[in-house]
Amino acid sequence: MATDVEITERPKPGQLVFKPARRGKPPQHLADLDLAGRKKMLQDAGYPAFRAAQLSKHYFERFETDPDKMTDLPAGQREELVAAAMPPLLTTVKNLKADQGMTVKSVHRLFDGAMVESVLMRYSKRVTMCISSQAGCGMNCPFCATGQAGLTRNLSAAEIVDQVVQGIRGLRDGVVGPAEEAPLRVSNIVFMGMGEALANYKATMGAVHRLIDPSPEGLGLSARGLTMSTVGLVPGMRKFTQEKLPITLALSLHAPDDELRDELIPVNNRWKVDEALDAAREYYDATGRRVSIEYALIRDMNDQGWRADLLGEKLNKRGAGWVHVNPIPLNPTPGSKWTASRPGVEQNFVERLRAHGIPTTVRDTRGSDIDGACGQLAADV
């Protein structure tokens, strides 16, 4: 049964939180472990190791958690096996729909009462899911609702993965668009929900492997369909580079100069613009995957033409062909003093970047009317 958690204190301006207040750990789930770990978990609980593969196939191939439907398991042990290997992790308390039902934001309650959100976006030929890695966020960016709410706690690998499994189940059951129409599998995963994923590194990487490893180890998604977002945690970026996985790295830059970025992205007070861009270039060199630069355009704050020129110059200084810029019209959040750039200013910013030879695409802002777009996730119920 979910219990109440204490209200997370809102951080002071500029305050970073890397270690959340200590809390009880969520129950261990088979998605926290690789197949060998699952076998040991079941053996330690007194069950045959081969049950691990059976349970894994139900979860990662059939997206099933109902013991009554697991007819390959002994009838007398089904419930206790599922309870031991697949304890409930996320209880969906609300689904909000937008874009004629093709975008759905889900608010989930965790075992301790903490709340997280995920967003599923269905397109004609793909399904993209935005998932959370933390309940809240400790990076404290002032224009982001998640950052302003503060950090409640890190998610476990299984809590991250279960967002995707529940999303796939929702597609199959017609929660997101008509169930009879393809595509019915999530093809793209973006770690752009609540939290800084690289600040929860171990659980994030465990989740990544559950997402990309073939069944019964994991979901068998293509690593090329994953995007890892960061505000510029340079040590985490360099550690992630060493994984050498063909995952897209997205750097949330939002300003090319330290003076402004210190204000917009508090972590910039530790690792400056040039350090973050150098780490991003190193990621491209190691993986061959073009890096995305995310840039929320904020009216009269970071949308000046000279900042577009400075960004273009800094990116070109590090070579050609390694980067792509995604300007994002700022999504409004309650009480914020900032809003999106004027359309003409946005277009000028884009054209000046392109004049430097930088591939630039304005990002889709689906889900903004249900507070499901970038920077709006705050787990309100």
Automatic annotation (TrEMBL):
Residues 1-27 are annotated as: Disordered. This is Probable dual-specificity RNA methyltransferase RlmN. The keyword Iron-sulfur applies. S-adenosyl-L-methionine binds at G195, E196, S229, S252, L253, H254, N331. Specifically methylates position 2 of adenine 2503 in 23S rRNA and position 2 of adenine 37 in tRNAs. [4Fe-4S] cluster binds at C137, C141, C144. The gene is rlmN. It is found in: Cytoplasm. It catalyses: adenosine(37) in tRNA + 2 reduced [2Fe-2S]-[ferredoxin] + 2 S-adenosyl-L-methionine = 2-methyladenosine(37) in tRNA + 5'-deoxyadenosine + L-methionine + 2 oxidized [2Fe-2S]-[ferredoxin] + S-adenosyl-L-homocysteine; adenosine(2503) in 23S rRNA + 2 reduced [2Fe-2S]-[ferredoxin] + 2 S-adenosyl-L-methionine = 2-methyladenosine(2503) in 23S rRNA + 5'-deoxyadenosine + L-methionine + 2 oxidized [2Fe-2S]-[ferredoxin] + S-adenosyl-L-homocysteine.
